[in-house]
């Protein structure tokens, strides 16, 4: 969960708009989102179509990322894989956050007893290695993109929940909330209008980073042969399938691996940029 | 799913010595065999039970060969030679086999090997509690009883003549086990079966290895062994390394002295490696095939079955996925099987035009948005469950399945690849509603395998081995007549006719024959592959002095 901690080095004196890295990350992020939304814009090839006479062709003008053991175009598979990976990343993050909000609010607003119970529950979840938790869920519910979303979402939930609880507690005890109480505003209004917006602002950064984390986890599960099944294009599953041929066809693992790294890196850079813009301390 | 039994292939054991002839790095063994030393054998699959009478899958027979002896053995020329039985006579009507047994042999628990022990073995094999599948299907239609005539003479009575009997008995699936050990019950016997063989089981560390040590009192080697008397090696660690890359790597790192199943994708590297020797054996019997479930609503129509086979370029798929290392086989029998008829090789060749025509005739004339055919609003979709474990469905097999899926799509058939775990695959196997297509193979030294795979008798046993869930009276009669005769010409004619019947039925889409492929460290000498089932034989193996 180290990704949930934004290191101090992330702080920069310049605004993100002055950074070439930011623009490169944004461009790559947009490209991946485009690939996920309209893959046909980037490739005219079918990611599942085989050409046995072209198996293991190295990268060339015709196949920029080469072809796999069935002569399928690796570039087309990486492009179409973006949809799966992004769906799992966003879905899992959304699920993780939704669960975290419930747990965090219960802990932060529910009184001492409820806080103790939810905190212990979060700690138990937290103590459980995320990937192991995901593996158990997949073992129980079977292999599918849906299970991957649930598995990664649940596994990322405790990290978010702790953040939400901490933020809610901090905001609840803040001077401006006390001021609102003094002014006679109702608890519901204070919760919706003041506590939630203030508690969630720092989470914007985490969400950006969390999507990247979820994609890496989903790829890890795919690499272990769990989640989306072949021949469906998914970055982790592609890494797994290419592993057996790594000695003779390096491109099968290199390109999906590079895209996972670059996309996660892009999300990290974008997350830092969001943080720099939203956090008062980030724009010193 | 991956089930199989044995193999005879005359002259198909190929020894490929990696690299050039000279090898300065490995000590020569001019001094001859050396006694001593432990070796590690790395297998791709783990048996479910070490008693091969139970179930009857290939990993069982490979390991069982090291601690069980059979009544007879088979030579590379297809001849049956003495082993625990020193001789036998067959009555003129083919119904009575009298075996004379080797004297002075003891099981490693001290129980003497005698006629009563042989009788006990047949009883155990046929006892439903043993849950035999392979042995049962070889014997069930023919076996009547086993009788101890004296201490060292045993009679087997048959219900009907069965000329492949001796060949069948040469397999380690019919290895002789101690009656005392078998009496402990299936669970205990699965863990530590006791035989008269060159090694004995010390311990089975599940999901890790089986520890075997030499039987110092061994003196019952088969007539075709390279030496008599105890094995040279002190023992074997029979290790399970199902990941292809790790297993091949274990050989390079010295963690293993020989490995089973060199991955085809590593073939080139293995050939170039000066420190190892490659041995391969192409099994006879029934090749790896996709069987079509005739009880499925879609494949009950022979036109759709034929269309399915025509639509897939199986030859190209095999050659591509197995990099030319595994040959394509388009007949219901593998080419090394006795009485194989090449005429029935690839009777339904790749022909998408024919496939489309047959599907049109069958009424699958409409197409949905994705291009799949439909009839009365129903999509032409078939389910193909497979074992997600990479040891059960190796990468090349998975590639073939995906290639078939893509080829079928071109004629409008959706193939749903359904990755499942082991337990779920076992449930699928006997259930005609659970699949439309299923991968299967049966390694066997005899064309009798056609009866085992596709007879009414096997269907009636109900253990899911008749994967197309069907039978044909003409086929059954032909095969029963073939096994009843001892005249080679008549037998050949009948077995070849049976291949023709099966080709016309399109119950199965053959792909490639299974192989035993060993990579052996050059310091380990005299490893050989026997021919009834392609079992690695380690009782003659020794570590060279330089090793």
Summarize the structure.
By secondary structure, chain A is mostly helical. Helices cover 67% and strands 0% of the residues of chain A. Chain B has 547 residues and is of the alpha+beta class.
* Biggest sheet character of chain B: 8 strands, mixed
The helix content of chain A is 55-70%
Low-confidence stretches of chain A: 1-7
Instruction: Classify the oligomer.
Output: heterodimer
With helices defined by DSSP (H or I, 4 residues minimum), what is the helix count of chain B? 17
Shape of chain B: globular
Rounded to the nearest angstrom, the radius of gyration of chain B is: 23 Å
Structure annotation, total helices of chain A: 10
How much of the sequence lies in strands of chain A comes to under 5%
Distance linking N and C termini of chain B:
40 Å
User: What is the mean pLDDT of chain A?
Assistant: 84
What's the SSE blueprint?
The complex is a heterodimer of chains A (284) and B (547).
Chain A (H helix, E strand, L loop, with lengths): L19 H18 L36 H36 L1 H17 L2 H12 L3 H28 L2 H8 L4 H14 L2 H21 L11 H9 L7 H28 L6
Helix pairs in contact in A: 1-2, 1-10, 2-3, 2-5, 2-8, 3-5, 4-5, 5-7, 5-8, 8-9, 8-10, 9-10
Chain B lengths: L12 E5 L20 E6 L14 H7 L7 E3 L5 E3 L2 E6 L5 E6 L13 H12 L7 H6 L3 E8 L2 E6 L6 H5 L9 H4 L3 H6 L7 E7 L3 E6 L20 E6 L3 H10 L4 E3 L6 H6 L3 E7 L2 E8 L9 H10 L2 H8 L30 H10 L4 E2 L5 E3 L2 E2 L1 E7 L7 H17 L2 E7 L1 H8 L7 E7 L5 H6 L1 H6 L11 H12 L3 H18 L2 E5 L2 E7 L2 E2 L2 E2 L6 E2 L4 E2 L4
Parallel strand pairs in B: 2-11, 2-12, 18-19
Antiparallel strand pairs in B: 1-13, 3-4, 5-6, 6-8, 7-8, 9-10, 10-11, 12-22, 13-22, 14-20, 14-21, 15-16, 16-17, 23-26, 24-25
Helix pairs in contact in B: 9-11, 10-12, 16-17
